[in-house]
Amino acid sequence: MVMQDKEAPSVNVGVRLRVLREERNISMRGLAVKSGLSANALSMIERGKSSPSVSTLYKLADAMGVDITAFFGESLERQPIVFMKAAERPRVSFQRGVWEDLGGATFIGRMEPFILTLENGGGSGPNAMVHTGHEFVFCLRGTLEYQVENQVLVLEPGDSLIFAAHLRHRWRNPGNTVVNALILLADFSETDHGLSAHQKLVEE
Asked: Max CA-CA distance within the chain?
């Protein structure tokens, strides 16, 4: 089971998906065509019967023309100073994992820090990702496997990784314990602001 701060606000992805879709007057079938997902799969997500993978969240954000941070809640004005209490940071659940925003979604600069929690077997999904800027990873607990191009890198507690994010990459938890990692996206272009930096997927 994923370890979470019980007081942290949890975003209902299904509800957010329905709100975002209806605000843009996109039908379920229309979104299915744009995203490449089935209408049945979308219906299951919106009704809370299925948790989308990270890859699926990116596809949905791209199909609706929104930043993936839209799934964290209402858009807020970006600020030069962002202070966030642990109990206030929003989180978004996906298949066998959780994103926790550490304030980057409302920060004016080109930096997006977040905590990644993965159950055993959890990962970023079937697609590799590429984006502008750089990516820093620090493993806090468990074993986190990153594949960057053709290199497979295994991070254990205290290990770190930095790479140019235009390189194809993906991640997963190959172990039997929960993984916690601090991930920082930096120096990305304005069009890649925030978690949308991971929105560009490479079809396999």
From this structure: 46
**Which residues contact residue 20 at a Cβ distance below 8 angstroms, ignoring those fewer than 6 apart?**
64, 66, 70, 71
Cβ-proximal residues to 23 (8 Å cutoff; 6+ apart), any chain: none
Classified as helix, coil or strand, 92 is strand
CATH superfamily of 10-71: lambda repressor-like DNA-binding domains (1.10.260.40)
CATH number for the region 80-202 comes to 2.60.120.10
35 phi, psi to nearest 5 deg: -90, -20
- Integer Cα distance of 139 and 179 in angstroms: 8
C-alpha to C-alpha distances, 98 to 27, 31, 104, 114, 187, nearest whole angstrom: 27, 24, 16, 10, 24
Domain ranges, ordered by start, for the chain: 10-71, 80-202
How far apart CA 23 and CA 76 sit, in angstroms, is 17
pTM value is 0.73
Task: Tell me which amino acid residue 130 is.
Answer: V
Q: H or E stretch including 20?
A: helix 13-23
DSSP E strand stretches across the chain: 10-11, 91-94, 97-101, 111-118, 128-129, 134-141, 144-148, 151-155, 160-164, 169-172, 179-186, 201-202
* Tens digits of residue pLDDT in 114-154: 899 999 999 988 778 777 789 999 999 999 999 999 999 99
Exposed e or buried b for every residue in 73-87, given b needs 16+ CB within 10 A? eeeeeeeeeeeeeee
